[in-house]
Design brief:
182 residues, mainly beta, Nucleoside Triphosphate Pyrophosphohydrolase, four-stranded mixed β-sheet, three-stranded antiparallel β-sheet, 2 helices
């Protein structure tokens, strides 16, 4: 909830009219709006997003350089929003494939989650970022695509959290490094 407090002034401030009946929408509580005319209440809940931690046989981390805002040009880990109707594990495998071309990706384990606020289309979207260890079978077939400008393997000793432009990814990288004793 701490990250939600950073959303200003109310997470649904731009939503002025009820999507059901068109009447004025009013703040109901810290994360919802309610229509006094029809009673419809809409909550601003966190969207699920995934992050792939992919390493190779040389114990290097697969990183991408962001091709789009937010944080264009900074480092990132493969991942993105979970689509409606798919599980988080399906989402992370799809995102890895979309950004790297890795069609043989599979989830090895869930690592941890972090709250985040992601700027999208001018709005801060609260997310819950789910970090997974993901395995790919053929690293020779990788290439940057979708919203990745480039991708490369980075030795862990060269990983610098400040190079990662998104707050939750930076915090996740810091946590991964701490687990490695760095």
């Amino acid at each position: 909830m701490a990250d939600m407090e950073k959303l200003s002034p109310h997470p649904l401030a731009a939503f002025r009219y009820c999507p059901r009946c068109g009447a004025d929408f009013h703040e109901h509580d810290a994360r919802s709006k309610r229509c006094p005319a029809c009673g419809f209440t809409y909550y601003c809940n966190a969207s699920a997003a995934t992050v792939a931690v992919v390493t190779n046989a040389r114990d290097e981390l697969l990183v991408v350089r962001r091709a789009q805002e937010p944080a264009k040009g900074t480092l990132d880990l493969p991942g993105g929003f979970v689509d409606p109707g798919e599980s988080a594990t399906e989402g992370v495998v799809r995102e890895v494939m979309e950004e790297t071309g890795a069609r043989a990706a599979r989830v090895k384990e869930f690592l941890f989650s972090l709250p985040n606020a992601y700027l999208f289309s001018g709005f801060e979207v609260p997310t819950c970022d789910l970090f997974f260890r993901v395995e790919i079978t053929d690293e020779t077939a990788l290439f940057a695509r979708d919203d990745a400008a480039e991708l490369f393997w980075l030795p862990w000793e060269e990983v610098v959290p400040a190079d990662f432009g998104l707050r939750s990814i930076r915090r996740g990288v810091e946590r991964l490094l701490a687990e490695r004793g760095r």
